[in-house]
Specification:
two-stranded antiparallel sheet, alpha+beta, 420 residues, 7-stranded mixed sheet
Amino acid sequence: MEAAEGESRSDTFNNRGRFGFIQVAKLAFDKLNDCSADIYPDIKTKVEEEFNFFEWYLTYSKPGMISLEPHYFWEDVALCYEHYTNKRAADSASFPGLLDLLNHGLFMSKGRRAQFEEPEITLSDLESIQECLKAEYEENVEDIKLAESYILSNILLSNKKPDSPNLSPVNELKNIIHTFLEREEGNRRPEFYLLVLMLFWPENQDNEAAGQKATEDSKSADSAWEDKDTDEERDKEPGEPAQLPADLMFDINLQQYVTFMKEAFVRTGYAIYLRGRYLLPLFFLGKGSGLSKWIHKSKLDAIVEENVDNELNDEQNEKIDSKEKMRRINHLWLRGKVWHITDIRDILLPVQIKLYCSAESQKHEEQEVCVCVGDQKIKARTEAQPPEATLPTRLFYLGFTIQGPVVFEVGVLNSESDRQ
């Protein structure tokens, strides 16, 4: 889908045509609301296609770091989809649909901005979703999208309740993803490689003990898998070695999968449709272990929103103006002040980075660094200035967009405790 030679391409993708179809389809339904949508199968199919597009388009990106689509944008997409399919947009179990679950009820969520009644997702909601996806996956173990959704549901549930008895053991999830690793190697979607990197990212040494306990606790959560394992052990011949832990079984080159993810971002068309837009960080590396070391961005958004609410309440405003609230939230992100909020620094894990410089990155004026993790060095984009001689006095956090890892600079360390 490269532009022809001599043909210029806009720095941004013009979504007016696709959104225009949604608006026309919605208007047609409103005009003919006494007719069943089933008599328009071609329109229904096209509406579903456009809904799927805008679902990931708005989940993975926004126009700019502090700019958003108009409030009616998602409202029209969601309502049109519901008209023609009789399914709620909020119930979508697609990968981006699941990713967006934890945003529900937050001030920054697209549903709340569209003025939908969108209560915060509950623990029981997430547990039910995880159970349903688990059952669906077990019935269709060759379905990679179901496998991805099932694994993602565990990561989301871990964000809500790290010790939930419903959580599947991490090694079990690694085994699932590993069954697909060598099939169509290098030709999967970015979502698949995101899960590979999250599942196989090395543990922080300081948290190994906590991670071991979390893993042991979660092993009792799933009797069906335990029964399967027990049967397999019973069928083993005497003297047959026990299965190695997933970390030892699978020798994962993380940089290779970072490369695959970046290539998939281009191959799937994401690079074309999302060009010029701000890619949203989906998860951040935290101080936990196992699945709990990945912090969904909604947790940061909730902390920022609470801080702004407290600030406005302290000013004794009779009514909190939504525009002023948004302005202050944007200010914290734009100025990088979110990284200095104590509650956020308490949950995120600083990473060590080194400057990475190549002819390719210089050609495209990209800023890339290497994240040092274990004995591996993994290339990542950065929203910060490239590190200089003062690197030891600067603090960095790691996040993941749908394109791959990205490093955020916190600023200069002020004390020895900041380096911990």
